[in-house]
Amino acid sequence: MTDASGLGDAYGVPGNVLRLSDEFYGGLGRIAALGAIVELRMSDIVVLWGREDADTGQQMRFLVDRFREIKKARLDAAQDVPEGLVRAVAAARAAMDERNELIHSLWPGEDIGWRNRRGGSVPTVHLGVPALRDVIGNLLRASEGLGRYLYSPTEPTPIATIRRRRDVPTRQAVGAHDAGSNSGGSPLPDEYRIDAWSRALVKVRALRTAHSDFHGTEWPLGKEHLLHDCLESVRSSIEAGTWPCAQRITTRPSGELPPIHAELCSNGQLYVIDGQLRVLTALWNGLVELDAYVVEMPDRHRPSP
Asked: For 230-246, b where at least 16 C-beta lie within 10 A, e where not — what string?
């Protein structure tokens, strides 16, 4: 409890800044801690059900978006999606929305609180310690609900080759394929128009060659093959340092690699049209996903027999 003099509580918070009881602080603290557990369990759901890498630290809304993609992939493959899991995810999202409203509110007193909005203050509906107990109960039930599904399904979810990124300005996709980079100087075809691109994370092992040339050297396997297989076919030359850009391929990136450009065909195959070196570097160093600009194309690439 803040002292009457306003000099501060046991943690040095002045009474004229926050007039909250230890019970109220305790409620907010439990809400913050339980929210972290719910997010961790939701991350585990994504990993177990989606055969994805760990997503610890991702915000709830991104994890829910991932689950929706997993649900769609399973339904498209005629695989079971337990209704209880769908309800558990919905309940967890609702409980986390309540958590966020409370944690990101301003509290000048226990019975008056508001969210700091750009257009002014909006009263919160969660007032006083009893409301905190309700939210704590919702978070506990959300954690327990997700906990029932912390296992890998009998039928593995098909691995998605692409995970679209949202809220990325369209014109960020110009990159290597803007009008100025067209070697013929003529307008780009409709399928390469700027607004056709989307930003995504793509599975590195799913990427294929769109052409057979790599820095002036022909791939031993030719074009339209998995870059992973192409890498294995020249691995000994890379280790010996005689393959083009061998040193760059074997050097682990110090940060994120720049986005590649890829074509996504209707059969789900991904072809690298710009960034083969980045893909080889990612494969060599064990990276699972790469940032990419993706354009959807008809199936004009057909693997060689």
From this structure: bbeebeeebeeeebebb
